Amino acid sequence: MAKPGPSCAPSSSNSDSNVDESSLETLITDAWDRAEGVLQRLKDSQGELLNRVQKLKEDWQGDMDSLVNSCEQEIEGLNNVHNADVERLRIGTGIERPIELTATELAA
Question: Which residues form the domain of 53?
Fold first, then answer.
């Protein structure tokens, strides 16, 4: 003959039922409080990360603006030097007009 297994039926005692419900409610409340704490820390961390990303973006944009300004100034300086060199060559060779016009006149 097979031995009967443990009973899964709820206890018929009211006091046992109340204690179990109270313990269960406490466990659920504690778990919920812990979950809320974790969620709040995640939200705080997300906010901190967002602030850091925005700061990095602003820093990057500032660096790019500075680099573009620096390159523009360098190009302007090179252009001025080039124009001065061209003018010096014109004066040095006695050419008062652009070389293209002189070449056109020679071809005519």
Answer: 37-107
Integer Cα distance of 32 and 39 in angstroms: 10
Cβ distance 30 to 24 under 8 Å?
no
Structural domain total, the chain: 1
Token code pair at residue 21: 């419900």
Q: Is residue 50 part of a domain?
A: yes
Q: Alpha carbon of 94 to those of 57, 85, 86, 90: distances in Å?
A: 55, 14, 12, 6
Contact 41, 48 (CB under 8 A): no
Q: Determine the Cα–Cα distance for residues 98 and 108; give it in Å rounded to an integer.
A: 16
Provide the 10 A C-beta neighbour count for residue 42.
10
Structure confidence by residue, pLDDT tens digits, 30-87: 999 999 999 999 999 999 999 999 999 999 999 999 999 999 999 999 999 999 999 9
Tell me, yes or no, whether 70 lies in a domain. Answer: yes
Q: Classify residue 20: in a domain, yes or no.
A: no
